[in-house]
Amino acid sequence: MLKDKNLTQKQKKAINKAVSSARPNNKKAESAQQSIPFKQMFKDGICKVNDRLYNKTIQFMDITYQLAQSDDKTAIFENYCDFLNYFDSSISVQLSFLNHNVDTEEFNRQLEIDEQDDDFNDIRREYVEMLKSQLAKGNNGLVKSKYVTFGIETNSLKEAKPKLERIQTDIINNFKVMGVMAFPLDGLERLAILHSSFNPDSGGALQNGNFSWDMLAQSGMNAKDVIAPSSFEFAAGNSFKMDGKFGAVSFVSILASEMSDRMLADFLSIEHPITISLHLRSIDQNKAIKIAKRAITDIDKMKMDEQKKAFKAGYDSDIIPPDILTYSEEAKSLLNDLQSRNERFFLITFLIMNTADTKRKLDNIIFQQTGIAQKHNCQLKRLDFQQEDGLFSTVPIGMNLIDIKRGLTTSSTAIFVPFTTQELFQGGEALYYGVNALSNNMILCDRKGLKNPKGLYCKGRYEILEITNKARTIAV
After folding, report:
1. Are 396 and 305 members of one domain?
2. How far apart are CA 50 and CA 61, in angstroms?
3. Would you say the pTM of this structure is higher than 0.85?
């Protein structure tokens, strides 16, 4: 039990409750492997999280949304609302956005051009230096990945597998409607994501062919032995250490009734490693309508109480506190959306995890993100005494251990649009075509490797005028 004279009794109870519920059955993990909250990862990508929860993960690509025309943005937004409405109350959903550093030397090697036995090596070296300077201006050193992890509760793997495959097919089809490429991840790919999350300096070691399922059988290890860091340290109340790195998990307190669709993009534009997780859980439609009606009834009772007080005090009973009027309007609007429009009611947990080499750098990153949250009329708060649960709720395992939720309708949830701009950065015989207008990243492309290899060559302004004048002369 917590004993501190500087805390109130209410604060002590809240902290003791958070500490006691930090681990299932109050059992303290004896190793980093035991801390990771899943039971088994299968080759086909199905993860057994606990005795009843099974889930899978789909990776999806980005599309150009922020620079799209208004009609195109509206169409993408509406399709994304339909995508969210697909998930009923039996399906748990986690949207994960990971910005991880990659090996800059590997990027530089992709830009190198071999010298040849001719007179143009000086031009090649100058061209490579130009490419490296453009690389430094953008954030091509960060790999941005997007995942959706969906799970259901069943009694066995045999029962869960066909249901998960059905949901997987529907999700991929919904992404196709939006023009988004998506593909399921197998067990090895999911372990690689978790390994890079728990070992930020690994450079994606599991993705380089250094692991196979046969290695587990031969070595006697399990999947957790492969992905776990050397240590987790959760001694501090609002931060943690993971494999020598400092980290902290915060939650976004959504205060605004209306928000901009730039919020998520602004968080992801920070040029530092970051992991953002959105846990979504749909409420049954009938239950959601009952909740809205009950809220309206409670607010009406509050109105009547205020009117009685006004009558007894001898002033106008129509004068009601503005907060009650605001709550009443919002509750009635919510009920109307649930009954008349194609809206569901979601419970959302918005988490952000940051890691850095030093404590000072970590605090500076969080301070920068706090400013972004305030710009969108929200608050970024550290998870006090819940950093362990916050860490494992942020990585794409599909389990939400944080009991901080915000109720939003479908359209309000869809404001966190997961799309910004489509990047085009290919290796091999790729050519430099310029800089992405939104992200400032380089556009390196091998047109022969694209679906449509055709290109358009624009002549200079004076050459075009000359050609135009000749055409006019011929027409005359």
Report:
1. no
2. 29
3. no
The values of phi and psi at residue 431, to 5°, are -110, 150
Distance from CA of residue 404 to its chain's centroid? Answer: 17
Residues 75 and 87 placed together within one structural domain of the fold: yes
- Give which of 61, 66, 179, 59 is closest to 420, Cα–Cα: 66
Query: Does residue 283 contact residue 347 with C-beta atoms inside 8 Å?
Result: yes
Is residue 2 situated within a structural domain?
A: no
Residue 386: other Cβ atoms inside 10 A:
24
Q: Summarize the chain as % helix, strand, coil (round to 5).
A: 45, 20, 35
CB 107 within 8 A of CB 74: no
What number of other Cβ atoms are within 10 A of residue 347's Cβ?
Answer: 16
Stated as kind and residue range, the H or E segment containing 411 is helix 410-413
Which whole number is the average pLDDT over 315-322? 76
Mean pLDDT to the nearest integer, 259-269: 87
Question: Any bridge partners for residue 382, and if so which?
Answer: 250
pLDDT in tens, 414-432: 999 998 776 666 666 677 7
Co-location of 299 and 431 in the same domain: no
